[in-house]
Amino acid sequence: MSGVPTSFHLGPLVFHTYGFGLAVAVYVAYTYARRRLVRAGVSVEPFGRFAIWLLVSGLIGARLANIATNWHYYRGHPGRWLAVWQGGLASFGGLAAALVVGLILQRRWWPGTALAKFTDALVPALIAGWALGRVLGPQFMVNGGGHLTHQWFGLHYVGQAGKRVPVPLIQGAEDGLLWLALLAVERTRLRPATGVVTALGMIVWGLVRSLDERLLLGQESHSGSVGVQIAGVILAVAGVVTLVVHWPGRASRDSEIPSKVQGSTTLPS
Q: For the chain, which residues make up each domain, given as ranges?
């Protein structure tokens, strides 16, 4: 790897480089999401509280998922459960917990805003933040690489012997391309169709994340490789359902049905 250390000291305090990188990514995602909500005409007054709730629930969910999928390590050692500074966060556990909390709070704080409109504003910002986070976060953590490789692109990671597939950089590039693709979709005729951007983000991100886990990380992952692969497929399937429901023309066709029925039952005056 490069000469960037995995941690640095400021007096008696120790800071992990990946934690600092993730903090930068969270700030960028928050700022960008807020701007997109304003542009979409959505009130941002409660968005600060909303973001805090998502962060807290995401961290708790990610930690619990990691504990569950690595129970052999945590069993009998409850002190390890809280040692987040030693690593151990499962991304899909965090997403699942934050998703539930986010849905509840969206209905409570934005009752007049359609969920699809709300998520269309958020999803590109979340993916952009995730892309930045992969580059600035896991790239500089212990055991951050993937499979062993002898190819030219392999990098050395602290805690892992030999050159490794630079999975964080690959995933950062994948997510960055997905973000650009979603922005391109917003410029097409699909722009007025709410939910399409959300659906496409779910489909592509879910499938790519599952394939990355299968091909680049496999059982060397510390977050339950099979569980991550299954979760990625489930997310993609949910995205397909969302896309079918919100595909342009469906809403107009559905709205025509009641009017036709009403017209056929109206008696002449």
A: 114-265
